[in-house]
Structure formats: structure tokens, C-alpha cells
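Z., the sequence and structure:
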Amino acid sequence: MRLRGSRVLLTGGAGFIGSHVADALGSAGVEALVVLDDLSLGREENLAAARRAFPALEFHRLDVTDEAACQAAVGGRAFDFCFHLAVIPLPASLIEPKRVVDRNVMMTTTVCELARSGTIRRLVHFSSSEVYGTARGVPMTEEHPHEAETPYAASKVAADSTVLSYCRTFGIDAVILRPFNNFGPRQNEGSYAGVIPIVITRVLANRPVTIFGDGHQTRDFIYVQDTARATLLLAERDGIRGRVFNIGSGKETSINALVQLLLELTGRADLPVEHGPERPGDVRRHMAGIHRATQELGFAPQVGLREGLESTVAWYLSKA
């Protein structure tokens, strides 16, 4: 399986991680790149760099739960790869749990059906570290129990199971990439924003930063371009059908430490930090075990937390 000269379908490609995957694909020598996104969180402007690298990029605004619309977009063409990143995010599941569970599973079933019909040769499905729940021990390997804390996490467990069931029952070629907490330029700072864009946004507005809970909860932060690079390594690796690969930094950082580093990098170490109530379903500890990705894919993170945050802060400041 090689990306150069291949035809690629990318769902959720106008989103944060998806657009960085699009950037990487646009520079990988692919023959065709078709992006599907409903722009509920993504932005078509996120694809600007990918279009510069690959002017023939084709974009369709549609809902990936709509199998007929997806079939119409692909127009009977066959694709060597599908990278499936379309998703309704975690915070939405605290407000509309049924919609999030239903839609996340339905979107995954759509791409599985495309694979079953022969439209897709290899499916690379994006999971989430949230499927593990709070770490029983670290590092968290791919064998860690699935103990979903939120409806979103449960929807990702179900979506992963759907992909693996299609592998076993129908023989589709699919692999699962399980990223930990991505950060970097283009991360959504509006609805359902993550901690890093929220802190930067509050700094720019000269408002106190609020940490939910005591701030001792930890996450494994991985720079988004490292994840995009890992995605391409995974796509081209032979002999991994039906396998799961964690992608992370292999390091844990507390939310308190993250916020202090962000305040330092923005020159606002004087800004007050407040603590609010814990968020429902907030996992306590995460740290990726990436031995499998290192040994079998040759993956190693190249961008450290400070370096990545410097680039991220600079990007947000350039937009202010």
C-alpha cells in the first residue's frame, strides 16, 4: 500500500486534525484527494495549505451519516484509502448524548459500507484515547480496558467495534489509529473548544483562566503534525489489518502545568487562574503507550510540548 499515485477519500478533512492530514496527503504525491465535511466545526479555509500543495483537491460539503450523499460524491470511483475523521466531539455528548452516539456510529457505518462495497481498499479509522477512560496504570497500551466515561467515548468504543466487526465478517482492510490529545494551529476555539484554545482565547481577552477541577488531571499532548505524519506511516504499513495503534507523546502533563506554560508563553503569567467544578466524565489520568507504533511503524514524536505550544500560540496571535 503506497500513497504516491493513490486515490484518497478523507472524511472530516476540513476539521482540526483532518486538515493537517489533508496537508500531509497533499504533499505525498497522491493522484486524487476528495474531502467530505459538513463544516459543523471544520472550516473550508483550513484546507488552504492542502490546496496549495494539491490544487486538484475536491471538496464536498455533506453529512457523512448520509450514505446516499457520500455515494453521490464519490461518483462510482474507487479509492485506495479512506481516512475517517468525521466526528461529533466530546463536549457535545454532555448536551445531546443520543445525537452524538447515533451520529458517530452512523458515520463509521457509512465508511464501512463503502469499504464493503469495494469503493475503499483500505480504511484508516480515527478512534480516541477517551475509549480507555481513566488510566488504571501508565503507560496505557492498546490492551487497556475500555471504560468510557462519556457518551462520546462510548460512541467511539462502538465505532471501533463496528470497524473491527466489518474486518471479521466482511473481510474489509481496516486499521484503527487511536490518538491522544492533539494540539496545534487550527484547533477550534469556538464551540466545544479544547483547553489550549480556551486558555489562549481568554488570555487575548484579558480574562481570568478557569481550570475545571483541581487541575491535577493529566493528559498526553501530541502535536497535530506528528499525528498527521503517523497517519501516513500507518496507511502505508502492510500486514496490520484489524490492528489498533496508539499515537501520543508518551508523556503526561497536568492541566495546571499546561496552563502555567501557556501563560508563560503568552507573557501573561500574571493572569489570575481560577478553579471551577469538575466536568462530568472528565478522565483523571492519561499517558499513551506508543511502543507498538514505535516498533511497527517507526513512529516517534518530533515536536515537544513547549515547541508545539510556541507555534500554536504564534498562530492564534497572528489571527487576533
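Residues 7-184+222-249 form a domain with the Rossmann fold fold (CATH 3.40.50.720). The chain has a mean pLDDT of 96.

Let me know what you think.
H.
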